[in-house]
Amino acid sequence: MQMASGPDAADRRDVDAMGQLEGRTALVTGGTSGIGLATAVRFAAEGARVFVTGRRQPELDAAVATIGEAAIGIRSDVSDLDDLDQLFAEIADHGHGLDVLFANAGGGAFGTLQDMTPEDFNRTFATNVRGTAFTVQKALPVLNRGASVVLTGSTAATSGTPAFGVYGASKAAVRQFARTWASELADREIRVNVIVPGPTDTTGLRGLAGDPASASALVDQLGAGVTMRRVGRPEEIAAAVLFLASDESSFMTGSELYADGGERQQ
């Protein structure tokens, strides 16, 4: 029997060559470094048009250059509601809506209960909680039916790690958002999930330690507490975010996906 060939085989090759986000539009907030930048690069490689935000223009310009022609940079601070209004107005003007929203912008600092200050508390919750909530709320008019929303959680939300109380509490709030929003947006077939990275070698993580020597010691210390005996790479977390953003996770919503090297399984 002769094997099938011709246009059908060529079509199959074309499908195989397509990226997982081919023809889709994505937004990555906090996309100028670390996990956000790695994810934006991966989304673009998978065929998506990628909007990326950051608070500082030089870093934003550098990120767009790294991501390539598929990237559109918009300077925006998620803790500023006027910035968010402008962000989604610009996205709406492009006329494609959003198929993927990666609400990644966030941050925090070390601080025990004794050392906690109102300023640190307000800054962390303004970005991680308030910023995430209003990013997703203001995205609603441009989210296409069947879109995927991915929020950034943390293993700190499920542990009692000293000096991570405020940061962990803010990420616990993000986890609860996902549970609620998954139910509220189900009628639009919009899925909401949380990516939970373990310690990941980013400039943000190293910056917590201050000087380079202390940063390397911090990375080694955190890696020793992971089952795989190392910290993660931003590209590894980006691969997990891609799974949640794509049709490969079509029966997942309100869930957490741990990409932590086994840290929370010990």
TrEMBL record:
<dbReference type="Pfam" id="PF13561">
    <property type="entry name" value="adh_short_C2"/>
</dbReference>
<dbReference type="GO" id="GO:0016491">
    <property type="term" value="F:oxidoreductase activity"/>
</dbReference>
<dbReference type="InterPro" id="IPR020904">
    <property type="entry name" value="Sc_DH/Rdtase_CS"/>
</dbReference>
<dbReference type="InterPro" id="IPR051122">
    <property type="entry name" value="SDR_DHRS6-like"/>
</dbReference>
<comment type="similarity">
    <text>Belongs to the short-chain dehydrogenases/reductases (SDR) family.</text>
</comment>
<protein>
    <submittedName>
        <fullName>Oxidoreductase</fullName>
    </submittedName>
</protein>
<dbReference type="InterPro" id="IPR036291">
    <property type="entry name" value="NAD(P)-bd_dom_sf"/>
</dbReference>
<dbReference type="InterPro" id="IPR057326">
    <property type="entry name" value="KR_dom"/>
</dbReference>
<feature type="domain" description="Ketoreductase">
    <location>
        <begin position="24"/>
        <end position="202"/>
    </location>
</feature>
<dbReference type="InterPro" id="IPR002347">
    <property type="entry name" value="SDR_fam"/>
</dbReference>
<keyword id="KW-0560">Oxidoreductase</keyword>
